[in-house]
Design a protein that fits this description.
The chain is an alpha/beta fold. It contains 7 helices and 10 strands. The longest helix is centred in the middle third of the chain and has 14 residues. Pfam families: Metallophos_2.
């Protein structure tokens, strides 16, 4: 069985479309690790596409902040307001309810998978606290030591935008920790991963795409400042 693992879309539909075009035709299931919404200008298109494609999904800190708390989640008040206003204007109740119905943490024991947006516990999975920066690759061995390696073969995390994978069996814990990277940000390159459960392999993939439609959409929407 082959899985496509996608995370941190951040409302970047052109990037997501580039990933769809790159997906091998042998993919059996698509897994999404949260942050469907964000600053990149295409919240409606992104959520609709992800909902149609997702076989399993968790939500992220931007999803909770914007759609449940009605506040942006950026280190700029102006951009936070822009993120919140643009997302609420674009999404109808059906799409908001779909994301709200997701959890930030999920266990799929039949597949040997543990999914979380930020950290692999129900309490810290969402990553909305300013102190919760997620798990960088340097912390993967600690993650592996903390999970049930009888039940789980893979721990899949997002949030940091750092594409990385580590087979922790050589450190005494028979689990692989994976972050597929971010699709939505930074602009220009969309990162994701393909996991083959049959041969226990992980392919980290990067797709380049045209950023002009994203920039045009943001400028047309009156983005208050640039960061690209």
């Amino acid at each position: 069985m082959k899985l496509a693992v996608l995370s941190d879309l951040h409302a970047n539909h052109p990037a997501l479309e580039a990933v769809f075009a790159d997906l091998p035709n042998t993919i059996d299931n698509e897994i999404y690790l949260g942050d469907f919404v964000g600053l990149m200008g295409f919240p409606r298109e992104t959520v609709i596409a992800a909902r149609e494609h997702a076989d399993f999904a968790v939500k992220g800190n931007h999803d909770v902040a914007v759609l449940e708390r009605k506040e942006g989640h950026v280190n700029s008040q102006a951009l936070s307001e822009f993120e919140c206003e643009q997302t609420w204007a674009a999404l109808d109740a059906e799409h908001r309810d779909w994301i709200a119905g997701l959890q930030p943490y999920a266990e799929l024991p039949d597949f040997g998978l543990l999914l979380a947006h930020a950290k692999p516990t129900p309490e810290a999975a969402i990553g909305i606290s300013p102190r919760n920066a997620g798990v960088e690759k340097g912390g993967f061995t600690q993650v592996a030591a903390s999970v049930d390696t009888i039940t789980f073969d893979y721990v899949m995390l997002g949030h940091t935008h750092e594409q990385a994978v580590l087979d922790c069996s050589r450190f005494g814990n028979n689990v692989t920790v994976l972050n597929p990277g971010s699709i939505g940000q930074p602009m220009g390159e969309a990162n994701y991963a393909v996991v083959d459960l049959c041969d226990d392999s992980v392919d980290l993939r990067t797709v380049e795409y045209d950023v002009d439609p994203v920039i045009s959409r943001l400028e047309d929407a009156g983005v208050p400042m640039t960061w690209w």
